Amino acid sequence: MASGGVLFATKPTVDAVEILVEKGITSIPDKFIRPPQERLAPSAYTPCDHVEEQVPVIDLQESLMEAMMNVGKAFFGLSVEEKQAYAALPGLVMQGYGSKYIQREGATRDWRDYIYLLLQPHSIRDYDYWPSNPSAFREVVHNYSEETLKLAKRLLGAFSMNLDLPQTYLEKAIVKPYQNMLINYYPPCPQPELTAGFYAHSDIGMATLLLQETGSKALQVRKNDKWIPVIAAPGALLVNVADQIEIITNGRYKSVEHRVVADKEKPRISIPVFCDAATKSYY
């Protein structure tokens, strides 16, 4: 697909979770219900004002983070029909708007919608999937991509030095960076105990830089077989170590397993940027 105007005729219809919420459903469809052994314990939905273990956070220019969150909210504030113009085509590289990240037949659905964008290198970008509404979307995403890539390189340098290795060790190990982004929208869910905003998993790349709405407690990380709520601090990013770092460092850094609980009352936006080692030559 060539860059330029959006090709409406080829776009599939997204089976958006948002549509179910707008219909006022009181029970969720079977395709969202997880087997009993995969459901979250009731304590996962209990408000947590005091968390024993705090998760360290990373700082970035606050105005840029606010702008990124604002364009994400503005996009998901559009009508479903407007968002459908950027619907992802079925396939392995699902750029665009969607709700079924796992395409396997019969897979349990997560309670979320999203827009998925490829960012780095620039040659993999397909601007047909970059919304032109809100008008600032493309510029903000571009700037956010550039700054988070710089931050990721600084973090790799810090990780390397902490292992008594040359500062550029991990950056050289990945050869060339590959970066992509999800803007996740989690609508309110009438039966959050039966499903998940995002199932428990670890990220496959090097590191994930996560932007959340201040005060959100929906994200949880596993430590010592205990799920710890990650309370989103104002003006900060969360950094998840991912699988490639664990492999390259022989387990000195551990990839973090995490999940997102569904919320009965409030919608939520989260924006992870995935910084990975390129698996093929894009340069």
Automatic annotation (TrEMBL):
All copies of domain Fe2OG dioxygenase, residue ranges: 177-277
Entry keywords, A to Z: Iron, Metal-binding, Oxidoreductase
Record's signal peptide: none
Gene3D superfamilies reported for this sequence: B-lactam Antibiotic, Isopenicillin N Synthase, Chain
InterPro entries attached to this UniProt entry: DIOX_N, IPNS-like_FE2OG_OXY, IPNS-like_sf, Oxoglu/Fe-dep_dioxygenase_dom, Plant_2OG-oxidoreductases
Keyword Metal-binding among record annotations: yes
One function term, GO molecular function aspect: metal ion binding
Any one Pfam family match given in the protein's UniProt record, by short name: 2OG-FeII_Oxy
Family: Belongs to the iron/ascorbate-dependent oxidoreductase family.
Name this polypeptide is given: Fe2OG dioxygenase domain-containing protein
Origin species: Taxus chinensis (Chinese yew)
